[in-house]
Specification:
alpha+beta, 3-stranded antiparallel sheet, 5 helices, 3 strands
C-alpha cells in the first residue's frame, strides 16, 4: 500500500495502467509476454495464441505500450515485446496490502 495518498497526476498515470489491464485480451497478452523465458516475445508468437485478428492484437499491444506496461522494438519484419518492470511495480505497490497495519482493513 502507499504510504501517503496519491497526487492527481500520479493517480492519472496509474489509472492508465489499470484501465489497460481491464480488458481480458490485454491482460492475457501481458501475462504471455511476462511469462516468456528470456523476457521478450515476438508478436508473431502472440498472434498464434488468440483467435483475434492481427489488427485487433496490434491495437491491444498499442494500448499496453501507451500505458507504459510493455516496451517494443522492431527487428526486421517482426516486433518484439517485453514488460516494463517499473510500471508494473507501481501498479503492484498500490495493491499490496501486506504493509497495511493489522486490523486497519476491517
Amino acid at each position: 500500500m502507499v504510504a501517503e495518498a496519491l497526487t492527481e497526476d500520479a493517480a492519472t498515470e496509474l489509472a492508465k495502467g489499470f484501465k489497460a489491464l481491464g480488458d481480458p485480451a490485454r491482460l492475457r497478452l501481458l501475462s504471455l509476454i511476462a511469462a516468456r523465458a528470456g523476457g521478450e516475445v515476438c508478436v508473431c508468437e502472440l498472434t498464434d495464441a488468440f483467435t483475434l485478428t492481427g489488427p485487433t492484437i496490434s491495437h491491444h499491444l498499442r494500448v499496453l505500450r501507451e500505458a507504459g506496461l510493455v516496451g517494443c522494438e522492431r527487428r526486421g519484419t517482426w516486433v518484439y515485446y517485453w514488460v516494463v518492470p517499473a510500471q508494473l511495480a507501481a501498479l503492484s505497490q498500490l495493491l499490496d496490502v501486506s504493509t497495511v497495519a493489522a486490523g486497519a482493513g476491517r
